[in-house]
Protein 1
Amino acid sequence: MSADAEFEGARSPKTPRFRGPIMLRRDRKKGIGTTDQHLLDERGPVDWVHTDPWRVLRIQAEFIEGFGALAEVPSAVAVFGSSRTHSDSAEFQAGLAIGSALARAGFAVITGGGPGVMEAANRGASEAGGYSIGLGIELPFEQHLNEWVDLGINFRYFFARKTMFVKYSQAFVCLPGGFGTLDELFEALTLVQTRKITRFPIILFGTEYWTGLMDWIRDSLLGSAKIAPGDMGLLHLTDSVDEVVRIIVEAAQARHELSETGALEEQW
């Protein structure tokens, strides 16, 4: 007796059965049932909520929530930096100053919503009367959105959160930070370099902290022809809050002018 014949109501291997858009040619387990049956039957295990098809719906829901919440925010700038930065440090004060200056220039400020530099930038924007946004992430250790966030969204998935940063930011400003800051930095560089997104300013704030990285990019990556000479121009390095704002404002103005002439894609 064949293996398929062991199942009740076994059918020919060539006879397909359909479960929604899914076609099955052979039963691999007994009592597969219909989609409606699985939906409406209250009995049975709940492991299905952890399966990949169900995760797709959660992912879709995160994108819908994010797009819906952020669709009407004003022009915004993303500020990144370490969550471990102490409030009495120069880097925290720089975050405050940058958040405040961006708000006064008419930009909303988007951060990861956590403590440290993120809290500083949110606080600076809020105290200056600007719009302060936090995009949190579910982590193994507990972390809440800081109290200076006006609009906060918590994400399960990093890639959904990353999309919101890129889609709703006119520039990235990176203060000293760790792996998370580097992750956002190099993803933005890759997207801009490969023209997957329209070019926008990527600013490293803190020459003492970032000079080593800039030297490595120039000497190792450019020096061995792993990047093009023009790619170095994708990064700005500064210690000046005023220069941060100037770079972003000038880029926004240039982008607006290019969009009006239909030449936005020719700025490369």
Protein 2
Amino acid sequence: MSGASGQKGRDVPDASGRTHRPDRPRQVGEERRSGSLLSVHSLAGQVFLLQLAVVMLLVAATLVALVAQARRDVMADARQRTLTTAQTFANAPGTAAALKSAHPSAVLQPHAEAARKAAGVDAIIVYGLNGITLTHSDPHQIGKHVIGPYAQAATGKPFTRTFKGSLGLSVISAVPVRGPDGSVVAIVSVPVTVEAVRHRVNQQVPVLFGGAVAALAVAAGGSGLVSRRLRRQTHGLGATEMTRMYEHHDAVLHAVREGVLIVGGDGRLLLANDEARRLLNLPTDAEGRQITELGLEEDLAGLLASDRPATDEVHLAAERLLAVNKRLTAPHGPAGSVVTLRDTTELQALSGRAEVARERLKLLYDAGLRIGTTLDVRRTAEEMAEVAVPRFADVVTVELLEPVLRGEESAGAGAALTELRRSAVAGLASDDLLHPVGELIRFVPDHPVAVAMAEDRPVLTAGLSASDGWRAQHPGRARRILDHGIHSLLVVPLRARGVVLGAVEFWRVKDSPPFEEEDTAFAEELAARAAVCIDNARRYTREHTMAVTLQHSLLPRGLPEQSALDVAYRYLPAQAGVGGDWFDVIPLSGTRVALVVGDVVGHGLHAAATMGRLRTAVHNFAGLDMPVDELLGRLDELVAQIDAEEAADADDGQAMITGATCQYAVYDPTSGQLVLATAGHPGPAVVRPDGTVDFPRLPVSPPLGLGAGLPVETAELTVPEGSRLVLYTDGLIEDRTRDLDAGLEALRDVLAGHERTPEATCAAVMEAMLSDRPRDDIALLVARTCRLGPAQIAEWDVPRDPAAVAPVRSACARRLTEWGLEQAAFTAELILSELITNAIRYGSEPIAVRLLRTVPTSGPAAGTLIFEVSDGSSTSPRLRRARVTDEGGRGLFLVARFAERWGTRYTSTGKVIWAEQSLGARPESELGEILLGQWDDTAL
């Protein structure tokens, strides 16, 4: 039996010997079984029902006998009464004389009726010998002739028999009436009907039944009292249970390994099993004697004789230490107690080891909780060292291989296993005693660490002073370690999934006992758990490094040169891993600039790779000068196609669905117009020059891949010059401590009322909005708008006439002279002439020319000339190389050679052919050589 913890759930016997749990009340079924006399499950109930059945049978038999006896008695009474009445009336004085009178009926009829009523019979009938009725209870029968068994009476012999006459079935007695001479002169018949007899019997039946019920009630009450007494003695047990209990009572009681005593309320020993007799050395006649008379130790005898309960109290009995548990039987039984005794003499020797085992199990449990809380290799090594100090070792050091720290796998053999970098130290106040953290240690071949790594087994050095291999590593440091009191070392290699990671060294100092072989198994288990966590961190480090490398290669390396916006940005990856947030600044034709912010749901390589694909697609679509809504529509189709490819390649049928959002905005500095659309992405913030912050309401389309071909809605805003456009991903405004609305309000507060540069705005936003451990990537893009002034724009309408080319070209030359760009006039006139000529020849009206001069917001102030020729045709020109015999076809070729870039942009009314010329381009002398190079000398 167990100690204090086990006493609560232990079954203990009550005063009747039946066991129950003191901490648990009796079940409802048990109370019902023990409390009902009619329950066939209990012995008392069975006896009660048997007694009741026997009594009922006896009462029923008696009742039947009494009813039968009553019938017989009534019938005998009827015969006797009829005969007596008949004899009395026949022999009455005057009966014979009345028969001789002239009217015998008149004389006899009153006397007969009086006698009938007095005798209580049904009739007194007088018949003549001729069969004529002289008297009758029914006057209508007088004078009638009757036929009956009266011959015997006519001969002078009276008789009694049952006969069916005029009154029905009756008991009839007939007596002759004799004359003075002794002859028979008439017959007197007295009947009593059987129905009257039965009525008398029925009158007695209720009395008989009442007596039977009273007898049955008395018998049942007696049986109930007997059964109640029996129930108390048997405690409601059934016959089978009692048989089984008494059959096994002695076997169970005397076979248990614990001593059991039952002590009465008066301090007498009522029962003791064999184990209790052995433990206490009790005499054979101990039962029935006082506890204090059994020769026990005084404190033990006092406990057993008292009414005080006890739980695992240790008492001395002879040379044994006994754990005593005592429980009182009241109120579940009569006053007394049940005592169990357990010999703990041998357990005392094992208690120390059990405590150590318990502490180590607790340490392993704590290690599972404390090691591996992060996916950082060095921090995991530190957690392993911290959890083992001081509960297993006084000092713990962890050394890891160099590739493991980088997230790579070790070579696993050779000299590489003897070069480890110390990654964690716990338990030392000073860092100069052992090798400090971060130092690369090259162990000699005989050092315990080198041996453990080479042979892949734990190495125990109980006494460091006797270990030559350990002392040879660094004799001077070894002396300082021994002087410090460190005397024992246990080295366990760290290995997980077949990969060698490093080694852990457990040290013990001064008063701590040296390590033993029993400590090796525990150290291996602790190291194995830590190795799995370190390997998880290593693998995560490798994947994280790969993902970060991939992500950095896919994100913008810098900002392109453009003159429309002053841009600054921030990108911060999440602590949990690399995500799929991205941003872009893409220069477009006509000094326009596209701002892009997107977010791929999830983290890891898949998110980074998907982000790269989407970013590349956005660059390609933007290079085609697609409208904002069309670009997001194409991007939605691309994401849907990626999902379809993932579903087709998934082996288990569970493809990873790509979730992505994107916001695309195009700013035109010539008009200050901002056209933007969003696909499931939070809208931008617009900080106006006066410091007010606005979050414009935009038509939001579904996230990418969910649009199902639906059109994307766009919004157009006109922003003043000097406004700041703030684009961001949801990681900036949402985290575990605030929701979306709170994040937007916090962003409004940090942006409002301050005139900052985009770079300062980025810094202020990140400082105010960034949480300690961001769960998601954060991309922030701040762009301050610039406008092209009227002095930087020149526009002309061109009639569809070849003669109009020369005036426009001259006007262009004059404007370039005004801008001080005479050195670029030749190239500009050449490009503009070719573009206008193509528009007049192949396009349709209206035809217009626009010349833009831009100055970049950063870098050298060379600037760019932009030529735009628009017409009403949607036909796009195609660049080709003209043959020698062709008279035309060289215009676009010249434009492509002299311009930095050129292209076509479609509008709602037609198209725009544009070209850009850098003001820092090649000198005019080189242009002539390029022109001459277009023709072959032999051809000329």
Protein 3
Amino acid sequence: MTLKQPVRSGRPAGARTAVSALLATLLAFAFLLPSSVAQADEMRNAEYWLKSLGVTEAQKETKGEGVKVAVIDTGIDTSHRDLKGAVVGGADMSGAGGAKGDKPIGVMSEHGTLVATLLAGRGNNQGEIDRVTSENQRLKSAWEQAKKTAEEDDKDVPDEPEYEKVPALTGGKDGVLGVAPKAELLSVSLWMGDGNPSGISVEQQIPKAVKYAVDSGAKVINMSLGSTSPAWPESWDEAFKYAEERDVVVVAAAGNRSGGMNQVGAPATIPGVLTVAGVDENGKASQDSSTEGISIGVAAPAEKLVGGLPDNGYARWSGTSGAAPLVAGVAALIRSKYPDMPAEQVINRILKTAKDTGADGVDNLYGYGIIDANAAVNADVPAVSENPLGTIAEWIRVHRRNSDQASDVPDPGVSKEKSDLKQVAAPEPIAPDTSTPALQPVLVIGGSLILLLVLVIGGVQVGSRARKQALTAQVHSAKLSDLPVGKPNEGRDLFDDIPEDEK
């Protein structure tokens, strides 16, 4: 049975509803699969994305050296053997975790460790340690038995064999290898959902976490958390703008339908954030472990994932909270190879080198396509000056204007946009001809009446045509806001008063 984790979310901007009712770490969107406790020697072979995404090739150029990546999550178990030496700092924003963010907290406390190992796991050499230890124990047991026998038989005791030195724990071929195994991690712990002993809300924790990550030197931030609402608290604006202005790449998970998200939720909807959707092992959009939305940048594997659990455990899991650190890892590889490359170009490289999937071009399921780590790191990509995903600074300028700074708001349905069309003058009226014709027709009374009737009808038609022409000229030359608008209950709209062309 798949274990569905509780959804934890934040509240929409401007509303004072319970934050924990909406904000959800994608641990809420992460699912531990049946028989999830796995062995280290099974993990590496299960990481199909290392080859399919071109990670193995990309790692021949760089492994993320010199780049700090902040993992804003539930805290990382820094003692996990696959993360030895990887976590270089951190802090707790919840008031309930370890001072350095190294205490897994909350309902699904293992989530942060799962994410961290996928991003920057270094694997381990525990298999080699076990082999050497076992062989040494075998030799020692054999020697002790030989010694006992020799002593009983009053014979010379054989010399104790030389034992192989047991290697120290380090990275190796076992366990989980992350996309950027030499990147340095910052563990920034949050308490998601209800029950935080300190009472600090998620709404307060998120902006503090982002600012801490930036101030601590992170060049990439991974946020495998999200909400069921595309809106975000206004209190988050400045934090994400702070990261944007300081050249930090922010990566966020899109969310999962199985976690109750039918559309991308914040912070993955924040302009400038690189949002990651999920695909299955065959590169198809995941039905359960992904969602859709116009803010999706790229897609990455979100099914049949593996990762580390606290206390040196392992698990099989799924969700876009696992897809996000794969992309954040690629961002770290790029920033390692090109240390002076600005964030917007890092994001652009990831987008423009992605393998187009689904509908041609950018779409709501895959964004620009499935990430290609090797191409993102090594391909020639033209430089850009702006983030293709927009900027939070511009969004704030447009959408968070104070009422006293806002321009006049037009009435619904009436545009006040200025027209670029030149005004056309109405034709001058033509004065009636009062001159006397050279020949005076001779008319009988009956003929006079007929002529009079014809003149009256003709005059009416000419007047009607002149009025229609004048109204048409007015429509063509006037601004849309100058046109008359009927009342709603009249069953008419703005365009009912525009005269049609003569047939």
Protein 4
Amino acid sequence: MKVSVIVPVFKVEAHIEACIQSIIDQTYQDIEVIVVDDKSPDASIALAKGVFAKNSYTKFRILENAFNSGVSVSRNNGLAIATGDYVLFVDSDDTIVPTMLAEMAAIATEHDVDIVVCDTFRVRTSEPQKPEVWKASLTGLVDGATAIDAMLRFKETSYIWNNLYRKSLFDNIKFVDNIYYEDMLIKPLLWKKARQLYFYPKPLYNYYERAGSITTRLGDLNKYLGIPDCCQAIEDAFAQDTQASQEMRVNMVLFLYTWIRNLTLTITSANMPYEAVKQLLDKYSSYIKFSNILKIGNGVDKRLPLFLLILKVSPYLYWKRFSTQLLAK
């Protein structure tokens, strides 16, 4: 069983060598490494080539994007040339445990599953302490509906890099370009398409949380504009799926609307003038439907419908209320 490892690269010269070395050090041999150069202006690609050369490693390809396009395009371009039966995505500032592919490939083969999910080491580079282990809530062989239910209840993370995917899952599913949180916007579709998943209770991926990442800053406001359209696409996919129960569809709306609330609160609490965020809030307001607010009214978070109602009726009032402080109570 061949595994394609796809590594998008852009301005990571401080970390790329460790990343590539961790892939070369895999005990599993039937792999190909696809390094996607997103027009990185630094020495990242040269350093990656140096690691391959130092190890006399030849099972790699370097693909160069036509122009700086972002991680989604880089992943899609890598998928387009991948020849593996399964695919693993590795962020270029992270590393993987030497036995990751051997252990996950063995599980995929033994159980004939579409996705294998492992636990993750979360390493906060700003805090010199023992890595935290992010554990999945599920264990062992699980059907797609059960996995999706756990995700919609926020029991599973939205990251894509600790999942080994059957490549055919991506035949009609692609990463969306020019948005933040691209993992969260594709993972529900992949998990929904999967027949079976296997949750392996062992941390095999090292995720480094660094200052300045999108998890610790607001970033480019334009990259939030496409998120409501992606959310609508996810809604539509579940609504059109005859296998999806009504409860699952409502939980999907609750999942998306909770995320929209949290995202818009992050945007409004950044203390920017209304003119700077008006286009964004208007876009998110247009996405929200009164009928969906009613559907999620009986959820655990009793304040969620109120947040959404204010945003739907008056984006300006929403900004005015939450631009300087979040609800404390």
